[in-house]
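Worked example 3. Consider a protein that binds S-adenosylmethionine.
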Amino acid sequence: MNPKSKLNLILHKVQQYWSGNAVNQNKGMVENLQRYGIIQSRKVAEVMETIDRGLFVPNGTPPYVDSPIPIGYNATISAPHMHATCLQLLEENLQPGMHALDVGSGTGYLTACFAMMVGPQGRAIGVEHIPELVSSSTENIQKSAAASLLKDGSLSVHSGDGRQGWPEFAPYDAIHVGAAAKEIPQPLIDQLKPGGRMVIPVGVLFQDLQVVDKNSDGSVSIRTETSVRYVPLTSKEAQLQG
Ligand SMILES: C[S@@+](CC[C@H](N)C(=O)[O-])C[C@H]1O[C@@H](n2cnc3c(N)ncnc32)[C@H](O)[C@@H]1O
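Given these inputs, the predicted complex is written out as structure tokens:
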């Protein structure tokens, strides 16, 4: 073997080692979330194993630690335990063929998870108001197991004010809001299907993760799941001013 091929082989082996290691670490993160009872279902474990969080965090940051990570523009990727909690709460509303809306989609991680769960016959829509994050999240998704769903159009990420929802593909079986609202935006309630569920952090200093279920008569039932701390659901200008 000539020296160049030898070097290529070594580089290939190093690459394989590192990518294999990343997969193991993502699996380890999922196993920890299962051990602590945050992931309770096989389906949520499978989707979090399939969508590698390492592809969604900025280079040089520790992807598998259970903590939020800054992604620029005064935003963060939420902690793995929050992603797992929201996926658990929405699991029944993320069946194949269903429609899911991810407001404040940030890195695109949860939008990709939703897309894997609703499958090619369903729709997973991300709405994010920072255009640069829309572009980087699209690149992240392209590297992930959800790339084919982005290509076939069952997954899409849009630039816009998520407080208005995304009427084009409403009504939604599942709505996730990744930033804390002062109060639940009415357009999001309107775009929820009867039988649908929304998970949304609500509050300013003290925030609750609220679970909003729309009943068959159009009324809503709201309960608090837990206390949380998210960046605010606000205007682009207010967010960039910090
Ligand atoms: C906690 S971060 C990202 C969460 C995302 N689930 C993730 O883990 O990557 C919340 C996101 O909401 C976005 N955001 C805040 N207000 C918004 C609004 N009015 N419309 C759309 N996106 C908004 C922020 O830019 C930020 O990317």
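Take a moment to read the result before moving on. The pocket of S-adenosylmethionine is lined by residues 73, 75-78, 103-107, 109-110, 127-130, 133, 161-163, 178-179, 230-231, 233-234, 239 (CB under 6 Å). Helices lie at 3-35, 42-50, 80-90, 109-118, 131-143, 147-152, 186-190, 236-241.
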